[in-house]
Amino acid sequence: MSESPPGPFRAEFWRSPLRGPWLASILGSALLPLIVICAVTGFLSQAAYNPGLGDNSQLPGGGLGVDIYFFSWPTTPSWIYAFTQGLHVISGVAAIPILLAKLWSAMPKLFEWPPVRSVAHSLERASLAFLVGGSIFVFFTGLLNIQLYYPWSFSFVPAHYYGAFVFLGALALHVTLKLPVVRRAFRDQGVVRPLRDDVAHTRAEPAEHDSTAPVNPAPATMSRRVMLGTVAAGSAGLGVMAAGQVVGGPLRGLALLAPRGQKLGDGPNDFQVNKTARAAGIQPAGTGPDWRLALRGSRNAELAREELLAMPLQTHDLTIGCVEGWSTTQSWTGVRLKDLAELAGAPEGADVEVQSLQHGGGFSHAILSSGQIADDRSLLALRVNGVDLSLDHGFPARVIVPGAPGVHCTKWVSSMTFRHA
Amino acid sequence: MSRLRDLYGSSQLHLLAVIVTMSFALYGAFRIAQGSDALNTFIWLGGAIVAHDLISFPLYSGLNLVAHRSLVGPARGPATERSVPLINHVRVPAILSAFALATWFPLILRLSADDYHLKSGLSADPYLGRWLLLTGSLFLGSALIYAARLRRAGHADAEGERAG
After folding, report:
1. Does A153 sit within 8 Å of B100, measured CB to CB?
2. Which residues does chain B have within 8 Å of residue A104's beta carbon, measured at their own beta carbons?
3. Where in chain A is the domain with CATH 3.90.420.10?
């Protein structure tokens, strides 16, 4: 065996007495449930777009290339998307401190010497590159996306989605291969026993072959419980910030550093905006008295806003759940989509393509399923909280569908085309 | 079986697990490669490793080393101060503040302030101040706990002397 290069390639370099299989196991056990929640809700987020309808899928070629999204996204409960997507962002944000601590605990593995011992070992190390790169990539592209910061040139959704395959594939291998290590660490040291030691009694785990426990540990200056307590406090604190913007209302104040922790004001239209009219390039001329809703089906019609207001109006409290992990519930008044479908002579089971005055950009149009049209609470909203919609909230008219992702609640609607599914 | 172990370096179950899981990982990589801006995506995927392992980790380890060298040394000063080490009263709030910065740095450092304002109608101005207030509060809380611990240690010493 060749002599290892100096520095971090030597086992003696790593001196923290806290590193070792038990620490890695407890951090991994805390991290894994968050990742599972984040992954499941992430795939549900794609399902919520009803990707099988038209070009709803945000992924080139429709996601998996095979349609695994065999169910139509439900409209009940009306906050389902706010809930699943809220969980996605909360679990992802809360995972950050644990992920960073986990990476710290495994650092000596990066400098393992010799770099390759066998075919199996080289494959394992390659998978660790996928795991480290994939985890940071997936978590941080998500974090940057919800803060509307895009320092890269790729499009976010496919990179985040397919990056998750790279990450989760590598993670599945890591969990499979490390399960015996976790079992052994918990059997030898107990699941929580090392937390009882204060700093004076904190000893390094036994340094065995192929372990991250130090061969030459420095005296402890921090106990494991203080280290893990700090990580847990960080995780809980960040999770609460993310939760504040999901629950909203008075709890929005808890979202101290989260992107939607600020109030816009106290007026009826002062709730969170995903994309302002200015950002969407909406011209005031297009939303003036000459605006008409073009209805297309077996009959075509053009309706002015007054004509829509003259139709039977319904009012429902419905939640906008944003893909960025914030939500807000308001009282919407408008015409049922069902009634508009009837007016257009839509065939049985038709879906509808809703087009916005916004040109280009993601979500200037969306296709709603027949199930979404059929729900009594699905509205083409004209008013909110008793007043006309503001321009930023989609004046003259916007869609609001219970349970649907916010970006499918098209604003500044210009036309609705009912078509055979 | 033993021939496989000799050639491969582990069990057949290991090989099976590698094949199953890496198929999914490579599927993701393959779909990225098919997409537009595949090169940019792979650069960021690889860059994520460099950013963490070779930049962020050495940086925070270095800061920890500096804190360690200046706050944990050979016994110095009055016995009371030696009995209550200061280092974690600095490290814990610093780590918590760093977690918040690592998570919300685009807003705190105003990296997307214009876009954020354009799209959400909100200003990114409050975030740096909020993070500084959070950091200050964490250090203040930690300092108060440190002071309380010092006081208690001082009392204990005094009582020890009286008893002795």
Report:
1. no
2. 57
3. 284-419
CA–CA distance, B46 with A236 (Å, rounded to integer): 29
Would you say A45 and A88 are in contact if contact means Cβ atoms under 8 Å apart?
Answer: yes
Sequence-ordered list of residues with C-beta below 8 angstroms from that of A346, at least 6 positions apart, any chain: A297, A298, A352, A373, A418
- Location of structure tokens 């808890």: A254
Q: Does domain A284-419 have CATH number 3.30.450.20?
A: no
Contact B28 A147 (CB under 8 A): no
pLDDT in tens, chain A (421 residues): 467 898 999 999 999 999 999 999 999 999 999 999 999 999 999 999 999 888 898 887 666 655 566 789 999 999 999 999 999 999 999 999 999 999 999 999 999 989 999 999 999 999 999 999 999 999 999 999 999 999 999 999 999 999 999 999 999 999 999 999 999 999 999 999 999 999 999 999 999 877 899 999 999 999 999 999 999 999 999 999 999 999 988 889 999 999 999 989 899 999 999 999 999 999 988 999 999 999 999 999 999 999 999 999 999 999 999 999 999 999 999 999 999 999 999 998 999 999 999 987 778 999 999 999 999 999 999 999 999 999 999 999 999 999 999 999 999 999 999 998 7
- Is A119 touching B (CB cutoff 8 A)? yes
Q: What is the DSSP letter of A320?
A: E
Q: Is the peptide bond before A206 cis (omega within 30 degrees of 0)?
A: no
**Bond prior to A114 in cis (omega within 30° of 0):** yes
Pairing of strands A313-321, A301-303: unpaired
Q: Is B107 in Cβ contact with A147 (below 8 Å)?
A: yes
Reported ipTM: 0.95
Between chain A and chain B, the number of residue pairs with CB atoms below 8 A apart is 218
Chain A residue numbers touching B123 (CB-CB < 8 A): 262
User: Which of A143, A166, A324, A407 would you mutate first to test chain B, the one with the most B CBs within 10 A?
Assistant: A166
Instruction: Tell me the nearest-neighbour CA distance from A271 into chain B, angstroms.
Output: 10
Beta-carbon separation of A257 and B130 below 8 A: yes
Instruction: Judge: B134–A257 Cβ closer than 8 Å, yes or no.
Output: yes
Contact check, Cβ <8 Å, A165/B25:
yes
